[in-house]
Structure formats: structure tokens, C-alpha cells
Design brief:
This protein is an alpha+beta fold. It is built from five helices and ten strands; from the N terminus they run H-H-H-H-H-E-E-E-E-E-E-E-E-E-E. Strands 1-2-3-10-5-8 form a six-stranded antiparallel beta sheet, with no helix packed on it. Strands 4-9-6-7 form a four-stranded antiparallel beta sheet, with no helix packed on it. Helix 2 packs across helix 4.
């Protein structure tokens, strides 16, 4: 089997899988993605090799990455992310940072983060989509977690969970660095 055949079959299987998991009909996905129902049928039956633009539109409509749609691995997938490959998305000159450690589609996006906040620093977050839940586990210092204007103290060794569909802020009002691991679960696109 050629690489192109393998990708075509993988795309067919994965589009159908994610469409079904999201509860979309062919018509609903076609409307969300801006592609024809006929094109989706051909893709799901592995009878066409769509353009990259079409695959991007379908992935966006399903809320999954192109990599996920083209994944041809058979059986359970184990992804190991080496420490040096963790993605740092935010940092300050004082040494605060966050790093995306790992992520998955389960059935919506699921992310695990490593955070460090230096004394006196904070990081505000806009509300996430309704139904988003965050879990935090503080490993050093104390987190001042402000959710919808209310402060909560989370000391080292403690954990907290909250509805992240409202504005929230991670802060360190202590005098030692605060470190935590955070998991974010976003509901699937419906």
C-alpha cells in the first residue's frame, strides 16, 4: 500500500470517527466546514485525496488537528514528549512561565501544563468555552487562584478544580516561587 493510499484511508477513518463522536450528520459537518456533502462522502469512503485547505476546514469544524485527522497509527497511541520539546507559551523576565507538557483529543482538547510563578507575579486568563474545567495541583509555594473575582488559597500539596468558563487569575502573593501542574479539559465542539 502506498503512503498516499495509507493517508487516504486514515483520513476516511478519522473524519468518520470524529464526525460520529461529535454527533454531526454529514450535512451538519458540511455546513460547519464549508465543504460539500458529496466531498465528505468521498473522503469518508476513501475515494478522493482532498486538498490541504479542505482537510484544514474539516479539522477546524471538528475541533481536531490535521495531525489527528491524518494519524494512521493502528491501535493505542502513546506519545512521549521529551522535556526539551515542552512548549513555553508565556514567561516573564522575573522567571515565571508556563509550559504545555502534553495534549490529547479526549473527546475534546485535553492539556497538561507546568506552571511557575515568581513572588508578586500573576497571570490572568479570559473565560474559556462553557464547560471547560481546570484542575491544578500545587507542588511548591501557594497559589492565589481568583475565579470570578473571588480569591482562593491553594497551598503546596493541595489541589483545586473549577469551571474555567469565567475569568480567572493565577497569582503568587507569597515570598517563594509557586509551582503547579494544571490540566485543562475543553468540551468537544458540538
Amino acid at each position: 500500500m502506498s503512503d498516499l493510499d495509507l493517508l487516504t484511508q486514515s483520513l476516511a477513518r478519522n473524519v468518520k470517527r470524529w464526525r460520529t463522536e461529535r454527533g454531526f450528520t454529514l450535512d451538519a459537518l458540511a455546513a460547519r466546514a464549508g465543504v460539500s456533502r458529496g466531498m465528505l462522502i468521498q473522503i469518508e469512503q476513501a475515494r478522493t485525496n482532498p486538498s490541504l485547505g479542505t482537510v484544514v476546514k474539516i479539522g477546524d469544524a471538528l475541533g481536531v488537528s490535521i495531525t489527528t485527522l491524518l494519524d494512521y497509527a493502528q491501535g493505542p497511541t502513546v506519545r512521549i514528549v521529551p522535556a526539551e520539546r515542552a512548549v513555553r507559551l508565556w514567561h516573564t523576565d522575573a522567571g515565571s512561565y508556563n509550559r504545555l507538557l502534553a495534549g490529547a483529543e479526549a473527546p475534546g482538547p485535553l492539556e497538561m501544563w507546568d506552571w511557575r510563578l515568581m513572588p508578586g507575579e500573576s497571570s490572568p486568563s479570559d473565560p474559556h468555552p462553557a464547560g471547560t474545567v481546570e484542575l491544578v495541583h500545587v507542588t511548591a509555594g501557594e497559589l492565589t487562584l481568583t475565579v470570578d473575582g473571588v480569591e482562593h488559597r491553594v497551598p503546596a500539596g493541595a489541589s483545586a478544580s473549577f469551571d474555567a468558563g469565567t475569568a480567572h487569575t493565577y497569582g503568587n502573593t507569597g515570598d517563594v516561587p509557586m509551582e503547579m501542574v494544571m490540566t485543562v479539559s475543553v468540551p468537544p465542539v458540538r
